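Researcher: Re-running this chain for the archive, since the previous output was lost when a drive failed. Same request as before.
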Amino acid sequence: MTKTALFFPGQGSQSIGMMAGFEGIALIKQTFTEASDLLGVDFWSMVTEENTMLNQTEHTQPLMLAAGVATWRVYQTMKGITPAFLVGHSLGEYTALVAAEAISFADAVPLVKFRAEAMQSAVPEGVGAMAAILGLEDEVVDAVCIESAKGEVVTPVNLNSPGQVVIAGNKAAVERAMMLAKDKGAKRALQLPVSVPSHCALMIPAAKKLSEYLKDVIVNAPTIPVIHNADVVTYDDGEKIKDALVRQLYSPVRWGETVRLIHKLQISQSAECGPGKVLTGLTKRIVKDLPCTALINIDAVAEYKSLTQL
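Model: Regenerated C-alpha cells:
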C-alpha cells in the first residue's frame, strides 16, 4: 500500500470561496462553526462573503486552522490511508498537530489567535516587512541579508524551494536586501503584503509570550509523526513539541529540506490538505518525482484516496 504524507498550508492561502469545492458537506460547515463558537467570530461568512476581516492576522490564523482541520476530517471520513507523516507550513504546523491528536481543536483555535496577536504586537505596523527573492541560491540570499542588515534585522525565513526564498526583518533592511539581491542577479525581489515579519528575530518577544501561554495547553504525543519546521525532526514528547512551536516563531521554515526528507523516507504520494495549491507547487519544484495533490474539493479527496490505495 502506498506511503503518503499530508501537507497543511499556512497564512497566505486564504481566499473568498476557498471552501466552495466542499459545498453541501456538513462536516466542513460544522468545523467552522466550532471555531466560530470558540472565538465569537463568524468564520464561515469570512470565506463566503466579501469582507475586510479575511486577511487580518488574528482572524486568518484560526480560519486557516479550521479550513485545514475540516479538510482533514473529510479525508478521514472517506477512509483515506493514514499518512506516514504530517507537515504544516508555519501556521499549518498547528493544523498538523491537531490532525495528529497532539493538540485538541478546542485548544488550538484560541492558541493560534493568541499567536497571531502576539506576533502583531511584537512589531508595530510599518516597522517590519517580508519579501520573496526569486532566482538566487539560498547561500547567496543569506550573504545578501548579512550585507544588508547594517545593525538591523533581515534574514531568510522561508526556505521554500530552489530559487525561492522569503526574507523578513526591519523594513529598511529588507528593502536594502531586495536591491542588493537584484544586483546579484535575482529574477525578482517582491515585497509581500503582510503586516508581520514572521520567523525572524523580531518575533522573539512574541515567542516569549507564546511560551507562557503554552504552559497551560495540553500537548500529547502525536498519533501520526509531525515533522517540525524549525529543525526538520519529529517529537513524541509534549514539552519538546511546545519548544519547537516557540522556536518556530523566530526560526526559518525549512520547507525544501522537509520535502526532500519526506522523499528520502520513501513516501510516494503527498497531498496539500487545505485551501490553495501553494505547497503543491512547491513540492513539484523541490522533488519532481514526488506527486502532490491539492485537496481543494471533494472530488480531489476521493481521487487521492484511490491513488493511495493502489
